[in-house]
Amino acid sequence: MSFLEHLEELRKRIIYSVYGIIAGCAVAFFFAVPLTHYLERYLTAFGGRLIFTELMGGFMFFFKVGALSGLMLATPIVLWQLWMFVAPGLYARERRVVLPFVASSTLLFAAGVAFAHKVAIPSMLRFFASFESPYVDMRPNISDAFDFYVKMVLAFGIVFQMPILVFFLARFGIVTAGFLWKHFRYAILIIFVIAAIATPTSDPVNQTIFAAPMIILYLISILVAKVFQKRPARDDVDDADE
To answer: What is the pLDDT along the chain (242 residues), one digit of tens a residue?
Structure first.
């Protein structure tokens, strides 16, 4: 295709993506009220009560929940449009790799979000609520509580992409399974440092909850590197034998 034809194709894919986002938001806002009530119950399940101190605070919470849910529903459509745009410029071998990559990356991100929602965030909320007393109540701003929730699920979703990152590093010959295993002790140290920085609580229990899946993912990444690491070229092997 010519340059103008590429631009026309890009414009078409963007328009379809926007239509998908609008449709996703329309569906999400239809269920926004029960979704909002669910998050309100979730964020106060271990104590405290949500408040908003700005006039539009409650409405903005409702709007953010609906918009975020709509974007999540539209993600497959957006990814498909992105795939339709780049697919014509890929070789057949590259096309076979892209779809499994998108599927595995999506599943890992969903697993990270589920872990954050079911394990990590409830543990942190329980820790925060433990500081309540007869004289002190936990009453976080609804906007701050929602921002905390979104940051945590995104953080775990990104962390769970570690095997995908190692896959590419191994394919390009940057890391090997032996290298990752040899530096396993240092990786543990770095993981706990990251957990200490990323975890909003200072207690070792929540830091361990954050670090534990990273350690498991690191071990899985070693296996990924073992299977997919770059092999030496046949000519290099023959030269080494000689």
So the answer is: 667 777 888 889 899 999 999 999 999 998 989 999 999 999 998 888 899 988 898 999 999 999 988 888 888 888 888 877 877 776 777 677 777 777 888 888 889 989 999 999 998 898 888 888 888 888 989 999 999 999 888 888 888 888 888 888 887 778 888 888 888 889 899 888 888 887 777 678 888 888 888 899 899 888 988 887 766 655 444 444 44
Helix axes 92-115, 142-159, angle to 10 degrees: 140
Structure tokens at 232: 């030496």
Strand partners, 51: 141
Alpha-helical segments (H) within the chain:
3-30, 32-43, 57-86, 92-115, 121-129, 142-159, 162-171, 177-182, 184-198, 204-228, 234-241
Q: What is the rounded CA–CA span in Å between residue 144 and residue 70?
A: 21
For residues 95 and 51, the answer to whether their CB atoms sit within 8 Å is no
| Residue type (1 letter), 4 | L
Question: For residue 179, which phi and psi values (nearest 5 degrees)?
Answer: -65, -45
Burial code (b: 16+ CB inside 10 Å, e: under 16) for 122-133 equals ebbbebbeeeee
The pTM score is 0.79
